[in-house]
């Protein structure tokens, strides 16, 4: 397929109209339309539905878009690898991650990787799981490391491990000596939780709905660092994954206790990549290192004590 035609096709798919694509590409609408028509003739089926709201991809169009994105990413990766042979710039790895991983886990992994691969550059985007999945499938990032209830379409899960919620509190908190915490315990103590779109808040809401109870957090924020600081300096309890806080607990005088609730144990920590994409070697190396690091953290995670 013609590379220029695919570039026009991808822009029309992104912008939703020929006129918007024309403005972005600085190419006449008629030229873009001709290239789209040639692609449709080549594949033997329409790629877009011409609707009043704009150009909407057909099923065939969505398949071609996924293929075109993979081709573009792989071409860029090859060019970057060739350039790195004669340049100190090296390769760039673009990562999307959940906020709980952006404070300690991912920066430590990047720092360790760059000691062995100092020419590698990183760009990290932080978001919630739904946004992160779209970034992967759209080719805006090379991989995602995120908390998920279930993976979205168009991604391949390269690694997954259970990542239940923990109750994080001061070591002097009345519940700090407990081996594990229950939902009833959370009801009678101030609670700090991330905002609605996060998997943490979704799991709390699921647990409350299943138990038929209402828990109103005293502090809700989209910023995990703010929640952590609040709990560190108060008698409140923070809901968080163990990997998100493990490195700072002892230093800040906090403890993390497992929560004995099925709903709060029903998420996983996943490493995701675009389905069907051939990744550059440097990204594969980073994924391998990241998986080893995550497995080590998982091995150190406290578990629910099963009743005899």
UniProtKB/TrEMBL annotation:
* Example of a GO MF term: DNA binding
Does the record bear DNA-binding in its keywords? Answer: yes
Record-linked Pfam families: HTH_1, LysR_substrate
| A GO cellular component entry from the record | cytosol
Q: Which SUPFAM superfamilies match?
A: Periplasmic binding protein-like II, Winged helix' DNA-binding domain
Q: Where is the HTH lysR-type domain?
A: 1-58
Keyword DNA-binding in the entry? The reply is yes
Q: Which InterPro entries match?
A: HTH-type_LysR_regulators, LysR_HTH_N, LysR_subst-bd, WH-like_DNA-bd_sf, WH_DNA-bd_sf
Kindly state which keywords UniProt assigns to this record, in alphabetical order. Answer: DNA-binding, Transcription, Transcription regulation
Q: Which domain of life is it from?
A: Bacteria
The record's family statement is:
Belongs to the LysR transcriptional regulatory family.
Name of protein: LysR family transcriptional regulator
């Amino acid at each position: 397929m013609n590379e220029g035609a695919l570039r026009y096709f991808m822009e029309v798919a992104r912008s939703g109209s020929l006129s918007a694509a024309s403005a972005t590409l600085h190419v006449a609408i008629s030229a873009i339309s001709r290239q789209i028509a040639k692609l449709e003739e080549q594949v033997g089926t329409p790629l877009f539905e011409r609707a009043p709201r704009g150009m909407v991809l057909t099923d065939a169009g969505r398949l071609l878009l996924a293929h075109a994105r993979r081709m573009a990413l792989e071409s860029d990766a090859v060019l970057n690898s060739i350039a790195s042979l004669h340049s100190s710039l090296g390769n760039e790895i673009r990562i999307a991650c959940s906020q709980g991983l952006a404070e300690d886990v991912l920066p430590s992994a990047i720092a360790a990787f760059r000691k062995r691969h100092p020419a590698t550059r990183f760009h990290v985007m932080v978001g919630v799981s739904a946004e992160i999945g779209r970034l992967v499938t759209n080719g805006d990032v090379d991989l995602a490391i995120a908390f998920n209830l279930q993976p979205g379409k168009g991604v391949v899960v390269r690694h997954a491990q259970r990542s239940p919620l923990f109750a994080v509190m001061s070591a002097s908190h009345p519940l700090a000596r407990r081996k594990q915490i229950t939902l009833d315990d959370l009801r009678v103590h101030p609670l700090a939780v991330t905002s609605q779109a996060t998997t943490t808040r979704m799991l709390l809401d699921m647990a409350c709905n299943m138990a038929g109870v209402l828990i109103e957090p005293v502090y809700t924020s989209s910023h995990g660092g703010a929640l952590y600081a609040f709990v560190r300096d108060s008698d409140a309890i923070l809901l968080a994954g163990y990997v998100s806080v493990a490195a700072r607990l002892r230093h800040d005088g906090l403890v993390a206790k497992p929560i004995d609730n099925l709903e709060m144990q029903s998420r996983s920590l996943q490493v995701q990549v675009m389905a069907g994409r051939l990744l550059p070697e440097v990204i594969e190396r980073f994924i391998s290192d990241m998986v080893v690091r995550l497995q080590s953290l998982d091995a150190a995670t406290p578990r629910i004590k099963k009743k005899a």
